[in-house]
């Protein structure tokens, strides 16, 4: 079972948020995975993570956010997999074009504290 503070908070509160951040915020993604409240560290303060007043689980700067109600916890070795029902969605309209396609460069984790993003080129097929 995971011993991080977030694990206990999700189990106790029954809700969690999933935030999708652009590459410019990869340091926050990395830091959120490294720091734990158990060590006396307030991740939000340390990483300067602001939330939206109307949605306290949604991070400012996220191009997409899901608020979820915990439905299932599945042990997967030394961690638990949380599965939730999406109860709310927030998105930054500036991160999408007029067709609703993402234009913000997403932070994509490669491993070993390394992040990349997608290429800006697009190819449309079948139109």
TrEMBL record:
<protein>
    <submittedName>
        <fullName>Flavin reductase (DIM6/NTAB) family NADH-FMN oxidoreductase RutF</fullName>
    </submittedName>
</protein>
<feature type="domain" description="Flavin reductase like">
    <location>
        <begin position="3"/>
        <end position="112"/>
    </location>
</feature>
<dbReference type="InterPro" id="IPR012349">
    <property type="entry name" value="Split_barrel_FMN-bd"/>
</dbReference>
<dbReference type="InterPro" id="IPR053310">
    <property type="entry name" value="Flavoredoxin-like"/>
</dbReference>
<dbReference type="InterPro" id="IPR002563">
    <property type="entry name" value="Flavin_Rdtase-like_dom"/>
</dbReference>
<dbReference type="GO" id="GO:0010181">
    <property type="term" value="F:FMN binding"/>
</dbReference>
<dbReference type="Pfam" id="PF01613">
    <property type="entry name" value="Flavin_Reduct"/>
</dbReference>
<dbReference type="GO" id="GO:0016646">
    <property type="term" value="F:oxidoreductase activity, acting on the CH-NH group of donors, NAD or NADP as acceptor"/>
</dbReference>
């Amino acid at each position: 079972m995971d011993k991080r503070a977030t694990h206990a908070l999700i189990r106790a509160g029954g809700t969690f948020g999933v935030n999708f951040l652009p590459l410019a915020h990869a340091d926050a993604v990395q830091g959120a995975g490294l720091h734990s409240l158990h060590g006396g560290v307030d991740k939000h303060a340390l990483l300067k993570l602001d939330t939206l007043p109307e949605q306290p689980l949604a991070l400012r700067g996220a191009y997409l956010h899901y608020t979820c109600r915990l439905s299932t916890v599945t042990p997967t070795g030394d961690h638990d997999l949380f599965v939730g029902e999406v109860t709310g969605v927030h998105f930054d309209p500036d991160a999408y074009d007029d067709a609703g396609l993402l234009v913000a460069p997403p932070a994509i984790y490669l491993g070993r504290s390394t992040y990349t993003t997608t290429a800006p080129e697009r190819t449309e097929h079948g139109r």
